[in-house]
Design brief:
- By secondary structure, the protein is mostly helical.
- It has a domain of 97 residues.
- It is built from 7 helices and no strands.
- It is elongated and about 90 Å long.
- The protein starts with 11 loop residues before the first helix and ends in a 57-residue tail after the last helix.
- It comes from Phyllotreta striolata.
- Belongs to the complex I NDUFA8 subunit family.
């Protein structure tokens, strides 16, 4: 997307939002839960980005995703902090590429704590690849109309004189 002088960019205040300041292993540990809990907000954001093709129009939807994730992590901190940190530490230190396999026991403890205290069940492994229909209240944007260019060179009038060809016929094959 090119930027011109007429392009309106959002201000710093519009873009400023409290961030989810967590490490990679912490985000990976809670990914299944956050993905399920914040599914509607995330789908709304992605739909807005795809439909409008302009990220500036989806700032509020992006803030809603960040707010949902932040709220989830605050709830986890209040109720399941020790279980969560054990799981994060296991993911971080058990393998160089943070595999889930060595940490199934701490994962089960964390999942049980989240289910018991927050009521969020861990999404099954095949949940996210499944097809989900997202219903939104936002109006669908008008489809972009194709660009119509004026005729570059006006055609010759039908009655224009056509002199005979200088070097033979006008067609490759003559009958």
């Amino acid at each position: 997307m090119g930027i011109t002088n007429e392009t309106k960019l959002p201000t710093e205040e519009e873009l400023t939002v409290q961030e989810v300041n967590l490490s990679g292993p912490a985000l990976k540990a809670a990914a299944f839960h956050v993905g399920k809990v914040c599914e509607w907000e995330n789908n709304e954001f992605v739909l807005c980005r795809e439909e409008t093709k302009d990220p500036r129009q989806c700032i509020n939807e992006g803030k809603a995703v960040t707010s949902c994730a932040l709220k989830f992590f605050q709830q986890v901190k209040k109720t399941c902090a020790s279980e969560f940190m054990q799981y994060v530490t296991c993911l971080d230190k058990s393998s160089p590429d943070q595999q889930f396999t060595p940490c199934r026991k701490t994962q089960a403890v964390f999942d049980k704590c989240v289910l018991d205290n927050l009521g969020y069940e861990r999404a099954p492994f095949d949940y996210f690849p499944r097809v989900h229909v997202h219903k939104t209240e936002r109006p669908k944007p008008e489809p972009e109309k194709p660009t119509v260019y004026p005729e570059a060179v006006p055609g010759l009038p039908e009655d224009a004189p056509k002199p005979p060809a200088k070097y033979g016929g006008r067609y490759i094959f003559q009958w």
